[in-house]
Design brief:
Elements: E1 3-12, E2 18-29, E3 32-40, E4 46-47, H1 50-55, E5 59-62, E6 66-70, E7 76-83, E8 86-88, H2 91-97
Antiparallel strand pairs: 1-2, 2-3, 3-4, 5-6, 6-7, 7-8
């Protein structure tokens, strides 16, 4: 993974908390590469935007309780679960449960 320390602005959460975006890098997980993943101060998680998946030639589908990241052939690569209004993807769970990953 490459990482660049660079202040890119701020992100506002649903509770009106504001945190700084302090840098970005590419995230390689198995055979999936997601570019420009933001590092947000104090968050403890990586943030992706739908646009980042599209820029990596992936498609995103949202359902009521889940989201799916697919390649252009329609194969599901990642699955996220919805909790309140936030969709989360647990990459560690995905790696242990799926033959997609070549770690």
């Amino acid at each position: 993974i490459n990482f660049v320390w660079k202040f890119l602005g701020t992100v506002r959460f649903g509770n009106d908390h504001v945190a700084g975006i302090l840098g970005f890098g590419d995230l390689q997980w198995g055979n999936i590469l997601i570019t420009m993943v933001y590092f947000v101060e104090g968050l403890g998680h990586n943030l992706f935007s739908v646009g980042q998946f599209y820029d990596s030639d992936l498609e995103v589908a949202f359902r009521r309780n889940a989201c799916f990241i697919r390649n252009l052939e329609g194969v599901d690569l990642l699955k996220g679960d919805r909790s309140t209004n936030l969709y989360t993807i647990n990459l560690h769970e995905m790696a242990s449960a799926s033959p997609i990953f070549e770690i």
